[in-house]
Amino acid sequence: DRQTLVAVLQFLRRSNLRESEEILRREARLLGDDLGGNVATVATSSPVVAAVAAVPPGKGEARGDFEVGPFSRREPREVGSPCAARSLGGSPLHWDTRVGAVVVEDQPDVSAVLSAYNQQGDPTLYEEYYSGLKHFIECSLDCHRAELSQLFYPLFVHMYLELVYNQHESEAKSFFERFHGDQECYYQDDLRVLSSLTKKEHMKGNETMLDFRTSKFVLRISRDSYQLLKRHLQEKQNNQIWNIVQEHLYIDIFDGMPRSKQQIDAMVGSLAGEAKREANKAKVFFGLLKEPEFDVPLDDEDEEGENEEGKPKKKKPKKDNVGSKSKKQDPNAPPQNRIPLPELKDSDKLDKVMNMKEAARRVRLGPECLPSICFYTFLNAYQGLTAVDITDDSSMIVGGFADSTVRVWSVTPKKLRSVKTAADLSLIDKESDDVLERIMDEKTASELKILYGHSGPVYGTSFSPDRNYLLSCSEDGTVRLWSLQTFTCLVGYKGHNYPVWDTQFSPYGYYFVSGGHDRVARLWATDHYQPLRIFAGHLADVTCTRFHPNSNYIATGSADRTIRLWDVLNGNCVRIFTGHKGPIHSLAFSPNGRFLATGATDGRVLLWDIGHGLMVGELKGHTDTVYALRFSRDGEILASGSMDNTVRLWDAVKAFEDLETDDFTTATGHINLPENSQELLLGTYMTKSTPVVHLHFTRRNLLLAAGAYSSQ
């Protein structure tokens, strides 16, 4: 504003920085000796301004880092961001000249956050400003129109909030009514929240509001479109809109062709706009870790009545195959010791051997050979089924229920048994070969075990890879670790203060992740009471969590409509994926670790290339929330399950072949999605009236699905 500008000019003059003073004058169109008459205001604002201006421009670290006003509660102000401090013309003076309190807190002081909406323009003209810009954008060339239309929503929100904050309630109401219908359909939920903020008091303590204010809305626009916009706003002297663009938006400018409407629509829709291109530049080690080597004994006991001589011959090359595969280190894999992983126990090695044997008989899936699907329906689940998980070897299934119980079933003829009491155990001969059988108490054998302990609905369950433990997370804010030897609770992990929506074990065991309503995901180890890492950055609930197959990364999906990939080693966010138009509810990594599939309430399944940080596919077909996603064991088929009571199978090989990930695409984020995802759809399977909550491929590629029958 003018007072601040004059103060800066006076300071420059006193410091004999004539050249800078001239540049600033030219940019701000303050010509002539226009510094008189403002001395009174200068006295009050000068100390802060002096502190800001004393930062020499061009020192990389200092530019715009002295943020006068609030710091974001989650992400520190980005150093020298293009919007940090530019006067109207966007001059290269990187000094932030907003005068206000410097607030460095975890929770931003609400009044400080909102004070950025100080009165800046005539409230009666807001509609005129907005409709003027709208007219300009709608009349611009097609190639620019699509890009510039992205401005409508963030400007609409900030102008509305500015009116409300400055207590022009009737103007705000009329502004909202006149323009809210023009916004894209996927912002409807946000607009509903916004429409309830009609008084300044409502804005205090409103999280949506604070998020919108503290996180810059990111728009990706080509240089040509940006120049066009800047020229228009300067000619019209439309400072009001320009100030909002400078203060609240982050415009990520790229060189090259403007993007088409279709390309933009695929990527936008999250709470804070798109991801900055910088956010997806970090290197990600998406390759798999080398498997430990051990011999697979070729026993013929289980080949009953089949050609005994032929079998081992057939199996031998397969075994070598498995061995040779693990000897070569994947060039994209993380170093083996990048994060400490638990040692393999003997029982784990046995399990790996079993796994390899099963893999030898695995069905090769493809468009010509679709998997059979076995559906586990929970009947009469009046308790309200809220979560399901199936062990890797498909021997047990667990359900989490709204009545706060966790129920474990055996899916094989083998019943679930608890370990004997201590007195009985002391009588057992420790040296006998079948000691593991002897310690089990036959009297406790049953098909179902019920675990009591939570005091609210159970929203997430996860078996450990060795099947000795089970995790469950609940609305009560805790994650519990249960023993599947004794069927008792071993630990309650308290860290989240609000409902915990999801939890998952690492593919190597020991570590697990949880995400909840407090907007953060936490990484835990089973033997620590406190979390090892806290992943903060999402602007709304963390609704689902998944480990990468190499356990070095964690993906989280959120109600802010973004997916983030976090590095377990240092807790950094290394990828942000935007494109979904509703909260994310399912995540699945491809078995080779290169791709991620995500499903949300918008019914779309999006496919991402993790290495390049790009969206590479969109699968349309479901008509309701996608709650379950799973790749087949070799990654040829992607199965998706939804609230629309269907399981759909997609051709993953075709979806990921000949991807265009050249340097230009990665640099600008121009994605070219195939028009029609129907050719990737291999089959749709209806249930009678059962929403699909979980999917699982057995080691031989039989697809298991689960859900609770709903009678309505």
From TrEMBL:
Residues 296-348 are annotated as: Disordered. Residues 296-307 have a biased composition (Acidic residues). The keyword Ubl conjugation does not apply. Transmembrane segments: none annotated. One of its GO terms (cellular component) is transcription factor TFIID complex. Keywords: Nucleus, Repeat, Transcription, Transcription regulation, WD repeat. WD repeats lie at residues 378-419, 451-486, 493-524, 535-576, 577-610, 619-651. CDD domains: TAF5_NTD2, WD40. This is Transcription initiation factor TFIID subunit 5. It comes from Cettia cetti. The gene is Taf5.
